[in-house]
């Protein structure tokens, strides 16, 4: 494979790398530089070294946002993966062992199609949808129902104790379908004789799930964890549109991306916002590096 | 908020509290009358290399072979905008042309098409300019997301508009623009002869306070054009049908709220999700009426203990009680449009807002709704008649505008009688031009606010901190919701606001303004 | 690919008696019931809001806000025509199709080339370039908005499809390279070696041998990219400022703001339905291929 390798490698990499450097790396490099300045968006920036970072350390809102990102990082992948695994398992294997062949529950094809729908919607659309779902009076989808039953309406987005969870629920709603399909795909490629053998040994559904399905899906699960983790670090559009008062009530739903956005575009503090962005970058990078380290995949072929 | 969202009349003068709502963060340069010429003008600083690199890369993208050397970070740097301030004009100055506009120079106008839409510009102000300078081509752009679209243009110094209506949820930060010397000084405008009477300076044709409103540390940079009165709004039809009259004092007001509640109507409400601004306007106006103009001045000037003044505490206490007894808790999760719709359906009695409300709701409110304004019904150092009124809706000329003289001239034309009258007729609002609304018949709501302003005489209050210090503004929204929806006590409200104000005061990186 | 097909092709098995123990059978039955309930519930949760949007698109504002759980009193088709003509949903849709079509193609071409080289060739700087791409997964995109605007402006590409397509490609590369290079690594080396021995050039080896072998992975990454780029919102907001070039998400967002201004909620929901329905139909139509692609790609 050595002959004329370098011209080929170069030719294949040149355009993608050039595009990537121009439109991704160079703007981000500039953002790193801006984070060391007091730039307000207009006149040339003034270098202030690490002042912005020092400010970050004492900024209560910043740490609150970090904390919320942390919660998202734990809860979003956990809940999404758990639900997706459950559904994927039911769809593919939940029908029990019929005559030794594992089958999905009745209507599994239908579910596989329907569950994917939310993934097809752009986040701004999901957010507009959930504004209606959560509306705190009788015109809300949930509260309209509750009030018909004579119950008190629930302030999903205005109760400081509930708001973050309501937002996470909307994210889960959107994400689950994709992972159902992903895991279904994984399960479908697990050789059927493994199940059949296990079923012959008298293994029930629960046993099958934990002893057979889960271990064989481990790689896919880890990939899912990385994607969801990265999604948890963003969460910008959904929080910004869905939450009361942009990250409220009283800052109980704010996340880093919202604070960056607020500082940059509402307060014109591009320098400070960039410093937050750089912090976010390192958080995400640390997370991804840690997870990827764990995920390092062996190429196992069935 | 309305502000945010509709914000045509955004009540956030002087920098505006844009809360950034994603849903509002949408930009829109509406189709302009001409083809948007997204020009390739090389920017002044590094034109040659830029052009060369540009064509090179385009080629590269097309052929897919050439490598771009290093994509030189520096020359592509977003922050390297030059600061050459252009000197407008080029034409000869005269009484008719006080800024020396070059008569065939193109004029680039950016209008925020919010609650007022941009029709007043295309149908009134631009034709006036065109009449004065028939050879000038006007490029009109309607932009919803002002900062997203305009900020990079200002920062890079390319395609800088000549006049910007800076408004909406995504308006440009006035303080930052002043600090970075992006705005043309409007002293020349205010000292220029007026369009209608060359013997009179423009500054003498506007309502007192207009120049001050748009000044930063006493230098005028912004024209706030629309005269806005704040108060509590109710339906004349609903109230007269039920025999409810304007309460004379606070006790009568509370008693009336009780009656309204008994009648099965929510007595009072504002939208917590995005319009807490409307409510803190009420609380602060209340405080000023109890303790006098000084109360708000102290807050604006970041005086020690300003938020702990007795008047502020009393006002917060009074409104916390209203919140506890008469407010629908669900409103914290609603947007202004939802709450306003409730009022139009006669499910809500009093709603705090500015007098853009009537125009904003004209499609939704029943024809006989009859908006009426009630000034906050308290007295102390000021009488019950006192109101908060301000000039809103900012217009500015960028310092780097190519046709700066044209931008100033456009503002001068706006401030003419014809400009003000046309605006009043189209959008149903008063402008800051004295007598500008003569001959215009306003609908009942604006009529009632115009009368209230007249009745208030000198007892007009206003505050500036919301535009000067965004941090305090944001905190005030949050604290107001916490107070009104019963999560925090009035003492906590004052404590919390004072803490934020002190933090801003001690933060050297924040430019301070005094009035 | 699924078990069901297998079941269908071997009907004879159905008649054979269950070989599991009785306890297992009842356990399985209960699980199956519970599972069925859980699936139905989630299906309702998913369909509910979407169906509601669809129904609301035929209501008027008063109906939407006063009685969310009732059917529209009449089919107000004018909401749809208003959204289509006045709000230009058709135009935005078309723009999205063009941009996403071109950029997905470009992303897949360039991404697979880079991923292939990085996965299967050792050369100086390989790891560096690889991590440069992969670190892009961690960049919060709005951080770059202002500098990016300037860069695009410098190339004279503001407000052009070309500009947006190039930017989409650039921002899709980290994920594409990350995913595909992992995939290329799993392909057996023997075929490639045989081809090289036959005198096949590197380029031909890639296009005629490796790429077809990687088809399943390519399909799944293509789907990821289409979904991701279709939903992209921040980038077009900054880079496409003239209304006739808006992509669908921008258009919807603008309509939702305007709905706030004009209280045209039914128009908003009609526009939402219009943007949702085609995606659902396309997906329902191609779901077999899409899922097969995901199967092969993601799991390998």
From TrEMBL, chain A:
Q: Could you read off the lineage of the organism from its UniProt record?
A: Bacteria, Bacillati, Actinomycetota, Actinomycetes, Micromonosporales
**Keywords noted in UniProt:** Cell membrane, Membrane, Transmembrane, Transmembrane helix, Transport
- GO CC annotations? plasma membrane
State the SUPFAM superfamilies in the record.
Answer: MetI-like (SSF161098)
Tell me the protein's name: Sugar ABC transporter permease
> Where in the numbering of this chain does the ABC transmembrane type-1 domain appear?
66-291
Q: Which family does it belong to?
A: Belongs to the binding-protein-dependent transport system permease family.
Record localization: Cell membrane
Where are the bilayer-spanning segments? Answer: 7-29, 71-93, 113-134, 162-185, 224-242, 270-292
Xref: Gene3D superfamilies? MetI-like
From TrEMBL, chain B:
Polar residues composition bias: residue spans: 16-31
Q: Per its UniProt record, what InterPro entries does this chain match?
A: Bact_solute-bd_prot1, Chitin_NgcE
Renumbered residue ranges of the record's region Disordered: 1-47, 77-99
Domain of life, per the record? Answer: Bacteria
Family the UniProt entry places it in: Belongs to the bacterial solute-binding protein 1 family.
Q: What is this protein called?
A: Carbohydrate ABC transporter, N-acetylglucosamine/diacetylchitobiose-binding protein
């Amino acid at each position: 494979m050595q002959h004329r390798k370098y011209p080929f490698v170069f030719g294949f990499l040149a355009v993608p790398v050039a595009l990537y450097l121009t439109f991704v790396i160079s703007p981000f490099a500039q953002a790193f530089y801006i984070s060391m300045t007091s730039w307000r968006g207009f006149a040339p920036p003034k270098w202030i070294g690490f002042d912005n970072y020092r400010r970050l350390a004492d900024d209560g809102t910043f740490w609150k946002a970090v904390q919320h990102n942390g919660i998202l990082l734990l809860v979003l992948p956990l809940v999404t993966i758990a639900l997706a695994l459950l559904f994927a398992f039911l769809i593919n294997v939940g029908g029990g062992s019929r005559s030794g062949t594992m089958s999905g529950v009745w209507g599994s094809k239908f579910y596989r199609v329907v569950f994917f729908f939310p993934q097809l919607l752009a986040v701004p659309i999901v957010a507009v949808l959930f504004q209606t779902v959560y509306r705190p009076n009788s015109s809300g989808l949930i509260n309209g129902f509750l009030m018909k039953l004579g119950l008190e309406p629930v302030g999903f987005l205005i109760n400081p104790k509930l708001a973050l969870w309501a937002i996470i629920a909307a994210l889960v709603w959107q994400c689950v379908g994709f992972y159902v399909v992903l895991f279904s795909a994984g399960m479908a490629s697990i050789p059927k004789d493994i199940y059949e053998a296990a079923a012959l040994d008298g293994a029930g559904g629960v046993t099958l799930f934990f002893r057979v399905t889960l271990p064989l899906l481990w790689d896919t699960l880890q990939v899912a964890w990385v994607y969801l983790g990265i999604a948890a670090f963003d969460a910008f559009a959904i929080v910004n549109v869905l939450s009361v008062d942009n990250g409220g009530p009283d800052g109980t739903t704010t996340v880093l991306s919202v604070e960056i956005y607020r500082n940059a575009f509402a307060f014109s503090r591009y320098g400070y916002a960039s410093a937050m962005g750089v912090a976010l970058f390192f958080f995400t990078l640390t997370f991804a590096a840690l997870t990827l380290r764990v995920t390092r995949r062996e190429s196992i072929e069935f | 908020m309305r502000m945010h969202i509709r914000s045509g009349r955004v009540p956030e003068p002087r920098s505006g509290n844009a809360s950034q709502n994603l849903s509002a963060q949408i930009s829109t340069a509406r189709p302009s009358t001409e083809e948007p010429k997204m020009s390739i003008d090389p920017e002044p600083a590094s034109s040659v290399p830029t052009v060369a690199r540009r064509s090179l890369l385009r080629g590269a993208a097309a052929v897919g072979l050439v490598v771009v050397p290093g994509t030189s970070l520096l020359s592509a740097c977003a922050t390297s905008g030059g600061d050459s301030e252009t000197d407008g004009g080029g034409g000869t100055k005269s009484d008719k042309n006080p800024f020396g506009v070059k008569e065939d120079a193109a004029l680039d106008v950016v209008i925020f098409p919010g609650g007022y839409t941009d029709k007043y510009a295309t149908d009134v102000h631009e034709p006036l300019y065109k009449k004065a300078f028939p050879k000038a081509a006007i490029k009109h752009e309607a932009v919803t997301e002002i900062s997203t679209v305009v900020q990079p243009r200002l920062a890079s110094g390319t395609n800088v508009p000549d006049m910007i209506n800076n408004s909406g949820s995504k308006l440009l930060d006035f303080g930052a623009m002043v600090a970075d010397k992006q705005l043309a000084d409007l002293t020349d405008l205010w000292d220029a002869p007026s369009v209608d009477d060359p013997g009179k300076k423009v500054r003498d044709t506007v309502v007192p306070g207009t120049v001050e409103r748009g000044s930063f540390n006493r230098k005028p940079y912004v024209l706030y054009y629309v005269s806005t009165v704040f108060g509590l709004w109710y339906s004349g039809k609903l109230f007269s049908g039920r025999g409810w009259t304007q309460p004379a004092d606070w006790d009568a007001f509370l008693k009336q709220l009780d009656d309204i509640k008994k009648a099965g109507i929510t007595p009072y409400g504002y939208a917590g999700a995005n319009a807490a601004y409307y409510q803190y306007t009420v609380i602060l106006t209340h405080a000023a009426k109890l303790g006098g103009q000084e109360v708000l001045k102290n807050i604006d000037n970041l005086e020690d203990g300003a938020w702990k003044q007795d008047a502020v505490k009393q006002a917060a206490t009074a409104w916390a009680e209203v919140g506890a007894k008469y407010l629908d808790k669900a409103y914290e999760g609603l947007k202004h449009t939802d709450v306003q719709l409730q009022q139009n359906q006669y499910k809500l009695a009093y709603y705090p807002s500015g007098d853009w409300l009537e125009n904003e709701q004209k499609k939704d409110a029943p024809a006989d709704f009859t908006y009426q304004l009630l000034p906050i019904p308290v007295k102390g150092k000021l009488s019950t008649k006192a109101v908060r009124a301000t000039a809103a809706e900012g217009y500015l000329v960028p310092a780097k505008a190519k046709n700066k003289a044209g931008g100033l001239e456009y503002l001068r034309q706006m401030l003419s009688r014809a400009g003000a009258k046309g605006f009043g007729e189209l959008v149903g609002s008063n402008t800051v031009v004295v007598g500008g609304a003569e001959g215009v018949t306003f609908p009942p709501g604006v009529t009632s606010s115009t009368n209230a302003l007249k009745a208030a005489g000198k007892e007009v209050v206003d505050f500036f901190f919301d535009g000067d210090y965004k941090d305090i503004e944001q905190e005030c929204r949050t604290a107001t919701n916490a107070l009104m929806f019963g999560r925090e006590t009035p003492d906590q409200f004052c404590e919390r606001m004072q803490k934020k104000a002190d933090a801003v005061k001690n933060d050297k990186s924040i430019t301070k303004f005094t009035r | 690919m699924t078990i069901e097909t297998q079941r269908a092709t071997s009907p004879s098995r159905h008649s054979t008696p269950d070989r599991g123990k009785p306890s297992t059978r009842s356990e399985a039955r209960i699980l199956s019931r519970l599972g069925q309930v859980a699936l139905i519930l989630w299906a309702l949760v998913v369909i509910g809001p979407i169906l509601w949007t669809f129904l609301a698109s035929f209501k008027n504002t008063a109906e939407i806000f006063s009685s969310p759980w009732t059917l529209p009193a009449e089919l107000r088709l004018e909401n749809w025509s208003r959204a289509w003509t006045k709000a230009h949903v058709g135009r935005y849709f078309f723009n999205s199709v063009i941009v996403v079509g071109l950029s997905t193609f470009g992303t897949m071409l360039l991404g697979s080339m880079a991923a292939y080289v990085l996965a299967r060739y050792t050369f100086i700087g390989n790891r560096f370039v690889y991590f440069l791409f992969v670190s892009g997964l961690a960049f919060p995109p709005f951080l770059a908005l202002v500098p990016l605007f300037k860069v695009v402006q410098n190339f004279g590409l503001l407000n052009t499809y070309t500009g947006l397509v190039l930017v989409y490609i650039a921002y899709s590369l980290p994920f594409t390279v990350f995913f595909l290079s992992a995939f290329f690594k799993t392909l057996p080396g023997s075929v490639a070696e045989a081809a090289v021995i036959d005198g096949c050039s590197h380029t031909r080896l890639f296009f005629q041998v490796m790429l077809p072998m990687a088809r399943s992975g390519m399909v799944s990454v293509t789907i990821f990219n289409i979904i991701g780029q279709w939903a992209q919102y921040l980038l077009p907001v900054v880079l496409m400022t003239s209304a006739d070039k808006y992509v669908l998400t921008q258009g919807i967002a603008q309509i939702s703001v305007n709905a706030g201004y004009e209280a045209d909620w039914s128009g908003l929901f009609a526009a939402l339905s219009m943007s949702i329905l085609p995606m659902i139909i396309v997906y329902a139509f191609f779901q077999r291929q899409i899922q097969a692609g995901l199967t092969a790609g993601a799991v390998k």
